[in-house]
Design goal:
alpha/beta; 8 helices; globular
């Protein structure tokens, strides 16, 4: 297994978000985590990404693993251009790109523009996040999470607040980039419809614990229809 969580618990104040959770993630797959809003998905990703530490238990990831993170809120720098935002992971905190030495600047710019092309934003390189649509901001956040060539990518509800067309574009990008880079990808969402087309494995997180792990077909054969409909009433698992 590439990622292992053993007996993980995490609380915020008096609220126990994760309860003695055990989970393993296979290398090279796209794993989807489904669960209700506020149910611990973001907390789980932040523990895997080493942003937060568990109250108890152990998170095991191979040493020297590069991790790419896409936060639910996007976490873009409003005062930086699209180019400077995407290049941030490559500049060791030296922003904007213009202050880098010429040789380094050229390499950073070349790679940054290449990744902007992957997500269809090469013509928006000089714009600021406030000038982008919601879907464009999500694509920029996705590209920034991938530009350092991570072995593990954690994507927190990448389609939240987007319309169906923009959501499909984002999920198609995740699948196509995964096929190109073959990194281990974990995608959290409260909407099972978004995960179905791209995920190899689905994990259901409910009340702080893992209640299901398997393929889409395994999920359809399981007895979790009522739970999934509770998580997202708009989705009919039997359809």
């Amino acid at each position: 297994m590439f990622v292992e969580l053993n007996n993980i618990s995490k609380s915020f104040g008096n609220v126990e978000v994760l309860k003695n959770l055990n989970l393993s993630i296979e290398k090279g797959l796209i794993t989807g985590i489904i669960g209700p809003s506020g149910g611990g998905k973001s907390t789980l990703l932040k523990l895997i990404g080493k942003i937060n530490e568990p109250d108890s238990g152990l998170v095991k990831i191979p040493e020297e693993t590069k991790i790419g993170l896409m936060f639910q809120e996007g976490a873009l720098f409003d005062s930086l251009t699209v180019l400077d935002n995407i290049s941030f992971p490559l500049t060791n905190g030296k922003v904007p790109v213009s202050i880098l030495k010429n040789k380094t600047k050229d390499k950073v710019c070349e790679k940054s523009v290449d990744y902007l092309k992957k997500v269809g934003l090469e013509d928006a390189w000089s714009k600021y996040p406030a000038q982008l649509s919601g879907g464009m901001r999500r694509r920029l956040s996705l590209a920034r999470s991938l530009i350092s060539n991570p072995q593990l990518t954690l994507l927190d509800d990448p389609t939240a607040g987007l319309d169906p067309i923009a959501s499909s574009v984002i999920m198609d990008l995740i699948r196509s980039v995964h096929e190109e880079m073959f990194m281990t990808t974990i995608v959290a969402s409260h909407d099972l419809r978004r995960l179905f087309p791209i995920c190899d494995v689905i994990i259901a997180l409910f009340d702080g614990q893992i209640i299901f792990k398997g393929t889409i077909e395994d999920l359809k054969k399981s007895k979790l229809e009522n739970l999934i409909n509770f998580v997202n009433p708009r989705y009919n698992l039997a359809a």
